[in-house]
Amino acid sequence: MRNKTLRIVILFLVLAVAGFFIYKLTAKSDATPGGAPAAGGARPAGRPIMADAYVVKPVKLDEIIEASGTLQSNEEVELKPEITGRITNIYFKEGAKVAKGTLLIKLYDGDILATLRKLELQRELARTTLARQESLLKINGISRQDVDVTTNQVAAYGADIEFNKAQLQKTEIRAPFSGTIGLRNVSEGAIVGPTTIMTTLQQLDPLKVDFASPEKYRNAIRKGDPVTFSVTGDTNRYRGSIYAIDPKIDLATRSVKIRAIVPNPNGILFPGSFARTSIQLKDNPNAIMIPSQAVIPGTRFKQVIIADSGKAKFVNVETGIRNENNVQITSGLEIGDTVITTGILSLKPGMTFKYNKVQ
Questions:
Q1: Measured between alpha carbons, how far is 297 from 346 in angstroms, rounded to an integer?
Q2: What pLDDT digit, counting tens, does each position of 31-69 carry?
Q3: Is residue 104 within 8 Å of residue 181, measured between CB atoms?
Q4: CB atoms within 10 A of CB 266
Q5: How far apart are CA 115 and CA 107, in angstroms?
Q6: Selection from 205, 178, 244 nearest residue 72 by Cα
Q7: Judging by beta carbons within 10 Å of its beta carbon (0-12, 13-18, 19+), is residue 216 exposed, middle or buried?
Q8: What per-residue string of b and e applies to 148-168 under the rule 16 or more CB within 10 Å gives b?
Q9: What is the mean pLDDT of the chain?
Q10: Is beta strand 49-55 parallel, antiparallel or unpaired with respect to 353-357?
Q11: CA distances (Å), 46 to each of 42, 43, 142, 355, in order?
Q12: Residue 268: how many CB atoms within 10 A of its CB?
């Protein structure tokens, strides 16, 4: 039993000595070249991040503002009566062109005509009475007060006649301008009131196109500038000119509303159509364009990463026009800056990295 215990102790000693020599050999292999250990006992640093970069250079850019718009009638009105009445006649055909002042709808006017005739007879009687009283006044056969009362009656009858003539005009609904009649919503015999839309009248030549432009282009757009656009289902390009610019910037969209006038002699274009508009601005010979993937979007601002003495530097930028692959930088970059285009998710401010210039 004692011999067995001795053998076990000797075995443990042998294993301990062997483990010590193995540890020494391993520590020697981890030493730095030349036999010296690494500083602080740490391993050498890993390879630096590699990225592609684009050197900013000036390019010629044809600035085109593109926006969605809507075609509008040059003039449009919903025809409603000013008074309540019964329709006696409808003189127009749906979809027909009418001239300004054309009688479109007639309301019943029998009661107004009867009142008007009665007032005219009463005024004639008052005028006759006035003439007699003025003759009597010359011989002091009547007082001046009586003559004045009759004079006021003549004037009052005249005012009532003018009022009823105005009411009579309200029974006639005429075209306020030349245009095209829409679909009618009433029939003869219908009782209509001031809230009843009987039909619509629209002026289709010319048309208006309304659209919005970012506020940064407000000073670059002028009245008279040409506008081209296309509509859904039509491959043709149409041309108009700006004639009105809203003086106020929309607070919600930070854009300015613009209105252009568009000739439509053949009636090919229709109000309400969706329009894809574009405005050609002056050519910019020194525009800064960079690849779109270099821009880092944010909730408050956009950023790009530039190489600054081999380190990553984040810069806030403002963007302009975009095309298929590139985006214009209007603020934040200068000619000669090196913009990082790949590996931007791995970089942090101040981080050292290497890059390859790609044009």
A1: 16
A2: 444 344 444 334 345 567 888 899 998 888 777 788 899
A3: yes
A4: 7
A5: 16
A6: 205
A7: middle
A8: eebeebbeebeebbeebeebe
A9: 85
A10: parallel
A11: 12, 9, 126, 16
A12: 11
Kindly list the distances between the CA atom of residue 128 and the CA atoms of 5, 118, 138, 155, in Å, as whole numbers in the listed order: 159, 16, 16, 13
Q: What is the pLDDT of residues 253-295, one digit of tens each?
A: 889 999 999 999 888 999 999 999 988 877 777 888 899 999 9
Positive or negative, the CA dihedral 315, 318, 321, 324 is positive
> Dihedral angle at the C-alpha atoms of 220, 225, 231, 237, nearest 10 degrees?
-120
228 has which bridge partners?
239, 278
**Structure-token pair, residue 226:** 């040409």
Which pair of tokens denotes residue 27? 């520590």
How many angstroms from the chain centroid is the CA of residue 297? 22
Spatial contact of 130 and 147, defined as CB atoms under 8 Å apart: yes
Check residue 180 and give left, alpha or beta (phi > 0: left; psi -120 to 50: alpha).
Answer: beta
- pTM given for the model: 0.61
d(CA 276, CA 68): 5
Q: In what order do the strands lie in the sheet with 85-90?
A: 172-174, 103-107, 85-90, 191-192
* CA atoms lying within 13 Å on the CB side of residue 245: 18
Extract the runs of DSSP E, i.e. beta strands, from the chain.
49-55, 58-61, 64-79, 85-90, 97-98, 103-107, 172-174, 179-181, 191-192, 199-214, 226-231, 238-249, 255-262, 274-280, 284-291, 302-308, 311-322, 326-331, 338-340, 353-357
